[in-house]
Specification:
309 residues; alpha/beta; Rossmann fold; 2 domains; 12 helices; 5 strands; binds adenosine-5'-diphosphate
Length: 309
């Protein structure tokens, strides 16, 4: 079974996150064993992105969602590492601004979707509107419960217009979340991430898991699948995501576009330029040689003169 099938949520299935092992490591003994595989994946992802940019045909939207401490930042750092920043970007979605709230909830999302040849990674997304919004009753139930359909229609529209959508839920368990909060306390480069909300939101763990289960169950289709990625082990999470992105991009069967110019003509131009440059170089060399030869003669004459005087 390939990675795509292994972690993909089947359409209309009932997701139970409690039954999906967050600590899963596949056949790997540990991180060491995965390093070489990861390097190869990164190299291939880099080639695929170069092809995508050159073809300027495909559009890739990667959606990342996770509980606090789930590793969205680390995933972004790792995934983007393989890609040329020229044709990919990350958009984070925070608490909506007053202007965003004055529009429909998909307004800010649609504006941020990628164009042809481009990859955009969403750090949080429109799914917040059926997650945090649902858990904290930010809108009435009948409003958020309509949104699963609205989101499906929105994503289908994007897909029909040529966007490939890949959605990852980074699945950690509650113990791992606490471990990561602990790391934040004692590792100086992570302390800036600590927020009061970490602990208040943690109290809503079960509500969030339930909200995620419903979103994953209702919004996974072939045109915009959800993948639940075991993410307790950061190296396994990275490996699985890279593998899925690689398999997705490889399925496009991309090719470098045919050159838009007549190559025979361009080669002729190139070689005549080179010949001209070389001709000039030969001519310059000849002049230099003549000058040098004259100089030597002059010196010799001078020496003779000196001798005779
Ligand atoms: P992150 O955790 O993604 O690194 P922040 O710590 O700034 O970034 O958190 C962003 C916050 O914005 C989260 O608490 C998230 O739930 C909230 N948020 C995002 N989208 C919405 C939304 N549509 N409505 C309410 N809150 C939202």
């Amino acid at each position: 079974m390939n990675t795509i099938d292994q972690f993909r949520i089947k359409t209309n299935s009932q997701v139970n996150l409690g039954k999906i092992e967050a600590d899963f490591r596949g056949d790997y003994d540990g991180e060491e064993a995965a390093i070489e595989v990861q390097e190869k994946l990164n190299q291939r992802l880099s080639e695929l992105q170069a092809l995508m940019y050159a073809e300027n045909m495909h559009v890739l939207l990667v959606v990342l969602q996770a509980m606090d401490g789930g590793g969205k930042d680390g995933t972004i750092r790792h995934v983007m590492e393989a890609w040329n920043p020229q044709s990919c970007n990350v958009v984070g979605f925070k608490v909506p601004t007053a202007e965003e709230l004055a529009h429909d909830y998909l307004w800010r999302i649609h504006k941020a979707t990628p164009r042809k040849g481009q990859i955009t990674v969403f750090n949080r997304s429109h799914y917040e509107d059926v997650l945090v919004v649902r858990v904290h009753n930010l809108v009435p139930r009948d409003v958020w419960s309509r949104r699963y359909n609205e989101i499906n229609n929105f994503e289908r529209g994007l897909a029909n217009s040529g966007t490939t959508i890949v959605k990852f839920f980074l699945h950690i368990d509650k113990e791992e979340q606490l471990r990561r909060f602990g790391d934040r306390l004692y590792e100086p480069d992570k302390q800036w991430k600590i927020s009061e909300a970490d602990y208040t939101e943690r109290e809503y763990w079960d509500d969030y898991q339930q909200a995620y289960e419903e979103a994953l169950s209702k919004c996974s289709f072939s045109y915009a699948p959800w993948y639940v990625i075991p993410a307790n082990q950061k190296w396994f999470r990275n490996l699985a995501i890279s593998q899925i992105l690689m398999e997705t991009m490889e399925s496009w069967k991309m090719k470098f576009p045919e050159p838009s110019v007549d190559l025979v003509e361009m080669r002729k131009k190139y070689h005549s330029e080179v010949a001209e440059e070389q001709g000039l170089a030969v001519a310059v060399e000849a002049v230099v040689n003549v000058k040098q030869a004259k100089g030597k003669k002059g010196k010799k004459k001078g020496k003779r003169k000196n001798k005779s005087s």
